[in-house]
């Protein structure tokens, strides 16, 4: 279907943003943006051509010449305006997000809000992008550092947080003086594009922010392009590993936040009601499509007797379209995702895990075509089963049982992933021991999804992350800037003539 046919059919087309203008792609390859609750086609998104990617990068490269010299206070004021625009359009953004991604309206607002927090942090760039000064390190010699922008940077974002994760990336990159090329998920790009429109309205100049859409070819073009200096990625381990290796081979900085298997350890002294409520929300919220979802529960000692109560709480969750009032669990993103999740559930049964709550094939009146999978719980899970070894990325909770805290720590540390973990206990000693000995980047104590606020860095580790700097907080300022060290001496006429000195000394 060409662009003219799409327009005649009343299906809008998603634009590219190149050099400040929203333009129609000249590509012959398009993909439907589909409402996962109804299968209605909301829009068509282009897979940009190589020439279009090159044009976006060229625009960003040209804009960098002036943007890098823009006063830091001017940059900060743009993001002050931007955060206000996001607040004013919160409900509109959430509605777009729910329509194309499926999560509930309250969760969609949360998606936007967590991204808004990063925009607010970007508005404080004047206090973040600070160098260091040492005065008179030798006779008349000062040493200081400058944190200077890199140039053109790029971001590749996933489907599960189409507002928050783009807002993790381009605001901090642009606030630090870089220009940016964004590639949103081709599955739900519409809310991202609305956020981009608001960014331009806030005052981001033409060429400073550009957007291209596409699949593997566009990802590879971003990794390979010689004028792109840094790449940020959030998504699957398979793609993230590819992006990191390919971008690094091309000489770029890269940070890749990838897959997870987040364990929540519940000790028998934990507050039962609080722990179970937290686990059900963290496992099944957003239909389990969160890289920080608490998808793996480790019950220690007598806490294993809580499984029936956990099942009843999960069974009470309402599965429906994200637009419907009272919905707890919306659809998963696509028919393909639903089939993959159902296949994983079948493998758990085949491998001997106990299916204590089966969420397959829920009846959703009025949304019979939706990609729904209800809350699903396996008990008796062991390492080596597919449902434990692989990230399911759906509303499926797997339960393992151990005897002691030591056993739980050993189990978590043996898993290759290190995105997040949590412990539920009323013992300060046990919590402190857990946080010290656990080999995972982000730790929650009586809190199941330990995602930090933007003042702190996102610190996933091991197989969940490639690159040593996280996507926001203090670390991302270092990622998007180059430290330049300046050593300066100024002479007056009396001290200028000291003769030739052939030593390395600064005296």
UniProtKB/TrEMBL annotation:
> What is any Pfam family matched here?
Aldedh
Query: What EC number(s) does this enzyme carry?
Result: 1.2.1.27
Q: Is NAD among this UniProt entry's keywords?
A: yes
Q: Which UniProt keywords apply?
A: NAD, Oxidoreductase
At the top of the EC hierarchy, this enzyme's class is oxidoreductase
List the PROSITE patterns hit by this protein, alphabetically. Answer: ALDEHYDE_DEHYDR_CYS
Instruction: Give GO BP annotations, semicolon-separated.
Output: L-valine catabolic process; thymine catabolic process
Q: Can you give the residue ranges of the Aldehyde dehydrogenase domain?
A: 22-486
Against InterPro entries, the record matches this protein to: Ald_DH/histidinol_DH, Ald_DH_C, Ald_DH_CS_CYS, Ald_DH_N, Aldehyde_DH_dom, MeMal-semiAld_DH
GO terms for MF: methylmalonate-semialdehyde dehydrogenase (acylating, NAD) activity
Protein family: Belongs to the aldehyde dehydrogenase family.
Q: What protein does this entry describe?
A: methylmalonate-semialdehyde dehydrogenase (CoA acylating)
Tell me which species this is from: Denitratimonas tolerans
């Amino acid at each position: 279907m060409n662009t003219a046919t799409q327009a005649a059919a009343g299906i809008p087309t998603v634009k590219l943003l190149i050099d400040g203008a929203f333009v129609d792609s000249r590509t012959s390859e398009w993909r439907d943006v589909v409402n996962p609750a109804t299968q209605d086609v909301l829009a068509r998104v282009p897979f940009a051509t190589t020439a279009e990617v090159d044009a976006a990068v060229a625009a960003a490269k040209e804009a960098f010449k002036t943007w890098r010299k823009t006063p830091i206070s001017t940059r900060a004021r743009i993001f002050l305006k931007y955060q206000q625009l996001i607040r004013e359009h919160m409900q509109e953004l959430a509605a777009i997000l729910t329509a194309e991604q499926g999560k509930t309206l309250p969760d969609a607002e949360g998606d936007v809000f967590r991204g808004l927090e990063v925009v607010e942090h970007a508005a404080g760039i004047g206090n973040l992008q600070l160098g260091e000064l040492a005065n008179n390190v030798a006779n008349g010699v000062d040493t200081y550092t400058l944190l200077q922008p890199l140039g053109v940077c790029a971001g590749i974002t996933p489907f599960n947080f189409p507002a928050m994760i783009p807002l993790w990336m381009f605001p901090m990159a642009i606030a630090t003086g870089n220009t940016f090329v964004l590639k949103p998920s081709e599955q739900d790009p519409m809310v991202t594009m609305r956020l981009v429109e608001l960014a331009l309205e806030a005052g981001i100049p033409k060429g400073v922010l550009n957007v291209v859409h596409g699949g593997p070819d566009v990802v590879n073009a971003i990794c390979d392009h010689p004028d792109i200096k840094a790449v940020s990625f959030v998504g699957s381990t398979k793609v993230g590993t590819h992006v990191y290796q390919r971008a690094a081979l091309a000489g770029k900085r890269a940070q890749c936040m990838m897959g997870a298997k987040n364990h929540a350890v519940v000790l028998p002294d934990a507050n039962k009601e609080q722990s179970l409520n937290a686990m059900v929300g963290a496992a099944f919220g957003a239909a389990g499509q969160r890289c920080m979802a608490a998808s793996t529960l480790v019950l220690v000692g007598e806490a294993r007797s809580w499984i029936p109560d956990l099942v009843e709480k999960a069974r009470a969750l309402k599965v429906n379209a994200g637009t419907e009032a009272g919905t707890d669990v919306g659809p998963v993103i696509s028919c393909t995702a639903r089939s993959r999740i159902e296949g994983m559930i079948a493998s758990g049964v085949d491998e001997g895990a106990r299916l204590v709550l089966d969420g397959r094939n829920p009846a959703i009146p009025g949304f019979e075509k939706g990609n729904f999978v209800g809350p699903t719980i396996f008990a008796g899970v062991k390492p080596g089963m597919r449902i434990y070894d692989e990230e399911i990325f759906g509303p499926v909770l797997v339960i393992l049982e151990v005897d002691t805290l030591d056993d739980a720590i050993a189990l978590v540390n043996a898993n290759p992933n290190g995105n997040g973990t949590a412990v539920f206990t009323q013992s300060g000693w046990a919590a402190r021991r857990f946080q010290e000995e656990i080999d995972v980047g982000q730790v929650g104590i009586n809190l199941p999804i330990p995602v930090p606020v933007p003042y702190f860095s996102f610190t996933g580790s091991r197989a969940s992350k490639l690159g040593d700097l996280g996507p926001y907080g203090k670390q991302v300022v270092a990622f998007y800037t180059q430290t330049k060290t300046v050593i300066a001496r100024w002479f007056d006429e009396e001290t200028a003539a000291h003769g030739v000195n052939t030593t390395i000394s600064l005296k």
